[in-house]
Amino acid sequence: MANPKTRVRQRLGELLVEDGLITSNQLKEALRVQAQTGEQIGSILIELGFITTDQLLEYLSKQLGVPYVNLMKVDVDPQILKILDLERIKTLKVLPLGLDKNTVTLAMVNPNDMKALNEIEFLLGRKVNPVVVPSVQMEAAIRSLIEHPDRGISREVIAEEVKKDTKRRAPDLFSLLKYLAKTEATDMLLTAGVPPSIKIENEVKRTSMQSLTPSDCENYARQMMKTQEWEVFQKKGDLDFAVTYPEIGRFRVNVYRQRGSVSITIRHIKDIIPSLQELRLPDMLRDYALKPFGMIIISGPAGHGKTTTLAAMVDIINTNRRCNIVTLEDPIEYLHKHKNSNVNQREIGLDTESFAEGLRHIFRQDPDVIVIGELRDRDSFEIALDAADTGHLVLSTVHASNTTSTIERIVNIFPPHQQNLIRSKLADSLLLVFSQRLVPMRQKEGRIVAYEILINSYRIKNLIREGKTHQIRTQMQSGAEDFVSIDVSLANLFRQGLITFESGLLYCENEQFYRELTGQSL
Q: DSSP class of residue 72?
């Protein structure tokens, strides 16, 4: 007979077949459904009628060596539930059921989760007696708590929620996040009326899962948000935030309302900050990142890797300098560990009200390096320029199509009577504008960066001061030490066989010049 511990490690479905509770054909059908929905296999077997809830729980109880509870047969006092905050219940997937002087009875989907057990014991100062509960009932209980935090848990509510789940069979949030983390997709899009979709190489591809309902999307949003974030979203109608699930990874999330329902965009953020070499970025960025003062701007369209480039440069500073780095981000995407520098990361909406508000008080924080996730408004631009002009290194991103339009974007955000002063300040403090775009690779192996470089040399300074930024493109188009057009970068990628001519044509600034560089003239 197999060792009990070995049996526990086997897949549940295989064990149930082995012990004669279900047939192999029933397991195949349940696995087919699981591939579409991502639900736990035990919950699917119950929904398909192949096994009862009590049969499954009794079986799991024997295998795991812990008691079980059927939430459709018990009521839980709201006062008991309040011993744990809702965020912890959502994250750890646990539910307090009973409490006495020395112990707490805790419903868990996985009673062998020692990390969760230790955390709860430490938090409450009591021994935990775990009991096993089906995943579908735990999800139903958490949804009920999110919607009615003071109502407690009743058997009728759980039964109704489980019934809804059976009808909807919406994919589990964690299964969706795991799926996103495994793919090469940049984003996952969750919208009512269509199946979950992913974005690969700037193209939306729908999964084979069932279409989502408005309540599915709202439930996903509530699961990812803290209570305070949900309240802010209810008032504003959209919200940016980041969330970390240790077993899956870190994600940047945007939730917004459209046509009366909730839509969600989720981006998976890699745990390790990539190097310039891994990103195929020029080494000269390292030299500029280590400058003691001045302004560096990373520009480009949305979704083309500006934040990742910025994070790579901050990591260079963090590794090679001993300084105080203060960042303002909306939201915080990459988490920087303290290396040779101190890195203080502040999130808009959580640690400070806005970029402008955070920048107003930033000098009191004694920064050597100021990192601004995105320059958006006049006040932020003005403070950033002053900071760069007074001995600080300032790094930021700007939404602009190329290096010269980046400069014009900064100038034009100010009223006409201030523009000459801003041009002068920009000419004095700017170090570098680096504009980038991610271009699909020839073999559909992802995207590769094409970039444009504008170094603030003596002649560039004069052109900025005199309001002749447009002359940079016309006079230096073919390339110079202080300006390299994105068309040159795209042509190089084409000649190296990394992108197609057509892809380069889509992203070039001057079609005729790009054709000449690639030898593909009309």
A: G
Rg (CA), the chain: 28
In this prediction the pTM is 0.66
Closest of 125, 224, 225 to residue 180, by C-alpha: 224
- List the alpha helices (DSSP H) in 225-264: 227-236
Evaluate the omega torsion of the peptide bond into residue 96 and state whether it is cis, within 30 degrees of 0: no
Sign of the dihedral through C-alpha 122, 136, 140, 229: positive
- Per-residue CA distances from 345 to 147, 327, 362, 387, 439 (Å): 32, 5, 12, 18, 30
Domains and their CATH numbers in the chain: 52-168 (3.30.300.160), 173-269 (3.30.450.90), 276-486 (3.40.50.300)
CA distances from 442 to 102, 144, 384 (A): 64, 49, 39
Lowest mean pLDDT among 118-122, 271-275, 440-444: 440-444
385 pLDDT higher than 50? yes
**Which helix H or strand E contains 103, and what residues bound it?**
strand 103-108
Note the pLDDT of residue 297: 98
Is the Cα torsion angle 232, 236, 242, 248 positive or negative in sign? Answer: positive
